[in-house]
Amino acid sequence: MTRSTSPDAVILDYNGVLGLQPTRAQWLRLARTASWPEDDLAAFQRAFWNARDLYDAGQLSDLAYWARVLGSHPGPRLLRELLAADTDMWTATDEGVLSVLRRAHATGLPMVLLSNAPAHLSTLLDTHDWRRMMTQALYSARLQLCKPDPATYQRALQATGVRDPRRVLFVDDHPDNCQAAARLGLRTLHYTGSTDALRTALLPAD
Question: Which sign does the torsion angle of CA 164, 169, 172, 176 carry?
Answer without folding.
Answer: positive
